[in-house]
Amino acid sequence: MSRTAETDARPLPTGAVLVAGAGPGVSGHLARLLAAEGHDLALLGIDPRELEQLAADGRDAGVRVETAQVDLTDDDAVRSTVAELGLRLGRFALVHFNPSAFREEDPLTLTPAALAEDVALGVGALLSVVQAARPFLAVDARVSVTGSMAADQPWNKAASLGVQKAAVRNLVHSLDTTLEPHGVRAVSVTVRGTLSTDPDSPFSHAAVARALRAALDQPADAWRSEVPYEG
After folding, report:
1. Is residue 230 part of a domain?
2. Which family does it belong to (predicted)?
């Protein structure tokens, strides 16, 4: 990286990292990256074993970790949980939103109720999380979202996923515009490839987590609320 790029980059402020939809994939790798940088962790998820493993990894890195098992579609539960975590940890440097629902149904079998259920997780929950975290966001904090090429190239047999990813990307653009006057920026990283469990793949969970981390350090005068990751 050039000296100019180093000067213009916006480093994350001090504060905890709130991960909504924490699990062993991209979100877990991103949490570990940021714990290694010294950020405390607040992890929201549904699997207690996955949460405990991530918490153990974070504590091994020497940071404080708080976990909460919560259904992200339960607006009241999410808001109260995030507020409690904010009071415990102080400021949030980053809110990362990771969840989406995968339902293998095409547009001729997908019902409106099922689509609404999926969108509630993959899109609506972002509102619950960010609105609850807003009082605790540090100046220069970030909001990031794991995006997908399904937003532009949906697989018809999992029609709701494409809707979720297109909608959440659109919402990130609006969040970024709304939060910018308060010193907070939002970004969606569109992963243009299929996630892989192969650690050597450019679309491994670790590689995508690194791309997300890099997107958080965009220069202030060239900030983009969507960053494509081509692998």
Report:
1. no
2. Belongs to the short-chain dehydrogenases/reductases (SDR) family.
